[in-house]
Amino acid sequence: MTRQIAVVAFARTDHRRSTEESSEVELLMPVLHAVLRQTGLRTADIGFTCSGSSDYLAGRAFSFTLALDGVGAWPPISESHVEMDGAWALYEAWTKLLTGDADTALVYSYGKCSPGSVRDVLTRQLDPYYVAPLWPDSVALAALQAQALIDAGDTDEAALAAVGARSRADAAANPHAQRTGPPPHDDHVVRPLRAGDCPPVGDGAAAVILAAGDRARELCERPAWIRGVDHRIEAHALGVRDLTDSPSARLAAEKAGAFERPVDTAELHAPFSSQEIVLRKALRLGDDVRVNPSGGALAANPVMAAGLIRVGEAAARIHRGESDRALAHATSGPCLQQNLVAVLEGDPR
Length: 349
Known about the structure:
The chain is an alpha/beta fold and about 350 residues long. The chain has eleven helices and twelve strands. The strands form two sheets. It has a ten-stranded mixed sheet with strand order 3-2-4-7-1-8-12-11-9-10. Strands 5-6 form a two-stranded antiparallel ribbon.
């Protein structure tokens, strides 16, 4: 790449079980104002805007056009949208800046999961002919993956519980987290997964600002330079996949340059504890790598924003000087079907 792009600002909501008193616009506006305030930029200074969300969650077509009210009606903007997690909106904005068509970009995403049953909504991602009519929800499919890992000898229920406990303990230092403290020791939600192994249902939004070259250094004392981004997808049919592995995550990491040098931090979008086991192996993360210091998706998982939050959290640690080289991961679809990996670095200290 001849042009260097960096994350220069990150903001997110305080994630809550329900924000029924707020619309998507009201959820977004404080985040958009906060991320712009960090850089001193105005809407007119942004060269490109890209958002990520899902009409299925909102329950109406083209719902993202209403959310644009949070950006403002004036001045006119160059805008795009992806029906995906905001991490894929970041990918589009990154490629836009690489072309030189813009020097700055605003990326935001949001998800309100509280109005309905998100477990049922996510069945719409499945094969519409053979699988979706059976209504296997996201937790049941994650349980199949967890059981496959246990049967293969890769983990056990105690190890899964330890992942959930560590995530919630780390989330205690994150003022935006939805869940903190020891996970409950209760019955299985779907065997072998218990409540501590599953993500909370909640609402939230996030936003980042990207900038190119010298503009990034003007806006941020220590920019988080994006050294590479790539995303890959598995076969749609679950029956032809090895659920104990994630070749698409591994390939995305390879193409993004993650294996060229070790990383010190990894923010993994692993909504279920079993998925962290899969990703650690696929991404070759050793015990010396700090995984999900923010608490990860087990502490807060606003659908369509949780992946962008992983990128933002990794970038924020670089901004604060707590990391020098970080990996950020986002996923979409059942059992880690589609995976995006970004590698971020700070300037040498």
